[in-house]
Write a structure and sequence with these properties.
The chain is α/β, with parallel strands linked by helices. The protein has 17 helices and 13 strands. It starts with a helix and ends in a 7-residue tail after the last helix. Keywords: Cytoplasm, GTP-binding, Hydrolase, Magnesium, Metal-binding, Nucleotide-binding, Potassium, tRNA processing.
Length: 472
């Protein structure tokens, strides 16, 4: 009842990003959207927007209650159900200054709209049946996509590719349930093909398909959120130079003075379609400088928290205690580690064999490779890129975007579904009757429905959309 009351209200919000721009959009949705627009927008070539057809760009001016012009703008009207929310929607495209947009938004409130909650436009699209829950979640993934690969994955989910796969799983389960229930309801008919071993094989095949999607979870989450990557090394090993090389710009200060990087620098970079959340840390060494010491402590913290560590060594200097400290830190890092032997352009190679031998004695480190590099010439960058692809894709570079799992909640639902199918197989193996098998299968069917939103509690829906931005 409360949900229906909220849906009856007309909402409005600024739909463009915060800050100044050439164009700003105020979006209004609900049964009063058109009447509110009529009160505040005056077309230059007509008396009201109702004299125009729907889905036309109408040029005019926005006026307040006293007739004072706030801005010249374009108004677009989309009538229900042919809109994003399946409700009457009006978008006012004005100049993108923050003041003018806030003035127009405030005017919509005074005319009867209320402030939209985070994600409420997309939530209404979901509740009105335009999108299922998986597609709705993909909306924010499209907005936040950091590489072409992450955009393709998000668009595949938004287009319904992942939902179709989940719905196919649910239909497979329903088909098995229908067959079992037919044998329960009509035992005298001796339902053709009623074979427990055949049922077991169908359940096992479905379980294998679900587990295959679960294998893509780490890849999907990395493509969506980025691979948290810490660059560590002693001072002047070339950490900042490596970061600048990967970024393709001079982001970090590079000097011959040890301890130049005292605080951590964080940037996103696209490496072969993989978004890396790069963190250039302070050079690790013993120091009496209070500020630098804090930076070194943060470097340890980032290395221990990172999913990937790029450990940078100077290939032209003799191994010293600072290098030994880096190697020890590598051995304790929980994430993957790639060792970079930097300054290969100088060709002395003093440190390579020694470092390689030391690394062999690292018993805990998840070292994925040693890459000779030159931050100056770019040598070794392609090798690093190929290593990253192997880490993220696990060798499966032909992965299908619609089958990539990119959400922790969805992953947990699929894991629980696989476990419920395990219960089903155990029920069959114990020789229990069709009734008990159906109970297990129906639990799995309902659990899968939580991904598309067909069987989900309202509070979970609210929680999901609360993470959206306002105006979407």
């Amino acid at each position: 009842m409360q949900e229906k009351k909220l849906m009856d209200e007309t909402i409005s919000a600024i739909a463009t990003a915060p800050g100044e721009g050439g164009i700003g959009i105020i979006r209004i949705s609900g049964e009063k959207a058109i009447s509110i627009a009529n009160k505040i927008f005056r077309p230059f070539a007509a008396k009201s927007i109702e004299e125009y057809g729907y889905r036309m760009a109408i040029y005019g001016k926005v006026q307040d209650e006293q007739g004072k012009i706030i801005d010249e703008a374009i108004c677009i009207v989309m009538n229900a159900p042919n809109s994003y929310t399946c409700e009457d929607v009006v978008e006012i495209q004005c100049h993108g200054g923050s003041i003018v947009m806030r003035e127009i938004l405030s005017l919509t409130y005074r005319m009867g709209a209320r402030a939209a909650e985070p994600g409420e436009f997309t939530k209404r699209a979901f509740l009105n049946g335009r999108l299922d829950l998986s597609q709705a979640q993909a909306v924010m993934d499209v907005i936040n996509a950091k590489t072409k690969a992450s955009l393709q994955m998000a668009m595949s989910h938004l287009s319904g590719g992942f939902s179709d796969k989940i719905k196919a799983f649910r239909n497979d389960i329903l088909s098995i349930i229908a067959h079992l229930e037919a044998s329960i309801d009509f035992p005298e008919d001796d339902i053709e093909g009623m074979d427990f071993e055949d049922t077991r094989e169908k359940v096992k095949l479905l379980q294998d398909k679900i587990r295959k999607i679960l294998e893509s979870a780490s890849t999907g989450i990395i493509l969506r959120d980025g691979l948290k990557t810490a660059i560590i090394g002693k001072p002047n090993a070339g950490k900042s130079s490596i970061m600048n090389l990967l970024l393709g710009q001079e982001r970090a200060i590079v000097t011959d003075v040890p301890g130049t990087t005292r605080d951590s620098i964080e940037e996103y970079v696209n490496i072969g379609g993989i978004p890396l959340r790069l963190i250039d840390t302070a050079g690790i060494r013993n120091t009496d400088d209070i500020v630098e010491k804090i930076g070194v402590e943060k470097a340890y913290s980032y290395a221990n928290d990172a999913e990937l560590v790029l450990a940078v060594f100077d290939s032209n200097e003799e191994l010293n205690s600072e290098d030994e400290e880096i190697i020890q830190l590598m051995d304790n890092c929980p994430g993957n580690v790639i060792v970079i032997m930097n300054k290969m352009d100088l060709s002395a190679d003093t440190n390579n064999d020694i470092i390689s031998e030391k690394i062999k004695n690292c018993h805990n480190a998840r070292i994925r490779g040693i890459v000779p590099m030159s931050a100056k010439s770019g040598e070794g960058k392609d090798t690093l890129e190929n290593l990253l692809k192997d880490i993220v894709y696990g060798g499966h570079t032909d992965i299908v975007e619609s089958q990539v799992l990119c959400d922790a909640r969805q992953g947990e639902i699929l894991r629980q579904t696989a476990n419920l199918l395990d219960d089903t197989i155990n029920t069959i193996d114990m020789g229990m009757s069709e009734d008990f098998i159906v109970i297990d299968l129906r639990s799995a069917w309902e659990k899968l429905g939580e991904i598309t939103g067909e069987t989900i509690e309202d509070d979970i829906v609210d929680q999901i959309f609360s993470n959206f931005c306002i105006g979407k």
